[in-house]
What does this fold into?
Amino acid sequence: MENNENKIQPVAEDVVTEDREETMDTVVTEKYDANQIQVLEGLEAVRKRPGMYIGSTGPRGLHHLVYEIVDNSIDEALAGYCTHIEAEILPGDIISVRDNGRGIPTDINKSQGLPAVTVVLTVLHAGGKFGGSGYKVSGGLHGVGSSVVNALSEWLEVEVSQNGHVYYQRFERGKPTCDLKIIGDTDETGTLIRFKADPEIFTETTVYEFETLQRRLREQAFLNAGLKITLTDYRDDENVIEEVYCYEGGISSFVNFINESRGLVPLHEKPMHFSVVKDDKSAEVAMLYNDSYNEIMLSFANNVRTADGGTHETGFKNALTRVFNDYGRKFGILKEKDSNLSGDDVREGLIVVISVKLTEAQFEGQTKGKLGNTEITPLVSQMVYNRLMTYFEENPSVARAIFNKALEASRAREAARKARENARRKSALEGNSLPGKLADCTDKNPENTELFIVEGDSAGGSAKEGRDRTIQAILPLWGKMLNVEKARLDKVIGNDKLMPVVTALGTGIDEEFDLSKLRYHKIVIMADADVDGAHIRTLLLTFFFRYMRPLVDHGYIYLAQPPLYRLTKGKKHYYAYSDEQRDDYMRELGSADIQRYKGLGEMDPEQLWETTMDPSVRIMKRVTLEDAQEADKIFTILMGDKVEPRREFIEQNARFVENLDI
It folds into this structure.
């Protein structure tokens, strides 16, 4: 989540607002000719527009630097030369990555007249991944990875163990400070790269999160069976953290890990695992069904996570649905009068990892979110259809258990369809599609408007009176709503707590969701600052994540931050949003009357406006999604049926809880 904080000023009884008119001088370019065309040499383009190469200069881009160097070592493993990768976070947030591969070539590159390792680190689109015999498959950024990391580092050092020697070179902001030189002798081979991210580029932070790197490196170990990856954090001398990842089971171990980390009950003993190799392409699938209502599909191409799917996912989905319906017809599970099972039906409760490797991977976009190779679709589809059909025929009891779950999902989908139709008919008869408790705003431009979902009728009443009626709409909710993590869609449709939210937003839910119909571009959850309020926020966030996910993906969800205290001295009021801020005010003021707010309902309309709703002073947290897989895991742990994973999560994270009366 990102804080969108404005400085909180004391609020006096009489507030005078001055209207200020701002002017901007217009700059006119007098001349536009060849002299205005700028040519950026070497790695200057990367430093000028870093976002084009690593996505952002925030925490995500910072960690991406590490991924690029590790990916180069992974490519050595794919080529069969690397068995161990050691990644370290050193004091000062310096990153060190060492592998025992062949080592970046140190001989002279004829086209550049420089050692190959120097070329790789200083020239865009230079590397062993553009044909030739260096690598059959590779991930990374197609040859720009190492040079981009070098360009965006305050300094970078490379050591190559090769030909009986250790070669060394140092760079500062992408430029060599010395020639490649021999600094020692060795019998080993491999590459060591150390670098420090440039604070001139990464102005937000240069501090790495161990957990973020941990997830990525563990994932890579799963995808490359038998490869050993060590991650060590040396930043705290008294608490050095070392993790070693090595999984002989590969993606089958990955699927088990995902299932166990969520505390889910599998429907069969071990994951189904299928693989095929054809010419220069290979495909591998591991899948496991569990007792949940959610689907987890992770796909990779050349070890690169394809978050937006692509042709490999298409091949898998088509084959899976076809197997279920063909098998169901063949063995009488689906009767002649029964409709075919849908893709959503057969993927309920499925955890699947799809990994393909190919020589010429075609990705859409620089960040490689989607695979585009059409030849992968039939490769994956045929493998899954033939192997899964055989598996079902050889394991009829497992097939029956999975089919029963799919059939229940199908019945729930039909019930949800009927509930939708009934809801539409009811709305048509009533002649009003908006919920009765909604106090709408007058501005109909979604880009300007905000919907406050408010806990309780009392707070809802204050919010309605204190709001800006032009742009702020209020929807009070009373009581706790349905926990959708434990319910299928048919239970969600028609729920008297959730459907008013859906109706007010106008988008529909699940497969009918249409973001273009969204009526407000800020959806603010405003609940009490206590345990019950936190529960309501979590229930609503679970609902949005599971059934209205684009609202989260596009940053439309916010959490209001009401104050905990109101301090009064004379005619001036101060609001404190934490115990620490309250204490700071008391030290500054000397003495003051303190009111502790137990809930939103204790605030009158004016107080609610000036603390929580006024855009000029309010504090809000925008809900963002950095890691969908991790978010999915947390929602399952917190809101699912299993107690033990939830207890462990609470024990591990209780120290991070603030401002709750526990």
